[in-house]
User: Fold these one by one.
Assistant:
Number 1:
Amino acid sequence: QVQLVESGGGLVQAGGSLRLSCAASVASGGTFSSYAVAWFRQAPGKERVFVAAITYSGRGTIEADSVKGRFTISRDNAKNTMYLQMNSLKPEDTAVYYCAATLNYPTMAQRYYGYWGQGTQVTVSS
């Protein structure tokens, strides 16, 4: 089992940058490197959508087309932390950002992720 806590959200102007963090607390006997992790986001009144995912080792990543080239997902297994570096932010990036973890392989499908953080708000002004 793993518990996830996001941080780093805030208010930023369009074109600016933010770095989100997701700190993982893994149950005794488990390791953070056993989990693939991902970022999802949800704007008010809209469904939660995939943003990016990263493999157990951190060597492989998947990004949604809407953020590719602007956002970079990474992880530091030694620190039990996953990151989302967001550059060239746009107003349409405004949402609550959630981190999630799975013992399965990384995927865009939300149903495979059994562990979720509480979310952190990102607001991008025009």
Number 2:
Amino acid sequence: QVQLVESGGGLVQAGGSLRLSCAASGSIFSINTMGWYRQAPGKQRELVAAITSDGNTNYADSVKGRFTIGRDAANNTVWLQMNSLKPEDTAVYYCNANLKRLRFLRWNDYWGQGTQVTVSS
């Protein structure tokens, strides 16, 4: 009933760029915050960037100045422009959305399937 579909991952050389996209669909009343998390092998999942429906953003210190997060006009799609990529950025990137479903009272977090980003040196 609610799906987050990601695209844009791949293999890139250090210093290159990638653009991730995530679209939310289904029985959704409203979407608050959308964001991107990443998880490298053997490490915990960490927040990369997030954006509210009002346009407020939050970035991990490690990506500030290199990554930019944004949403489309309908606020159901979030993208992440990743520039000056480093090998340390290699991870599976997961889309996240905090939303309220139709006929439901509570706001909940939903997750995409994950997309691999690999940065070679």
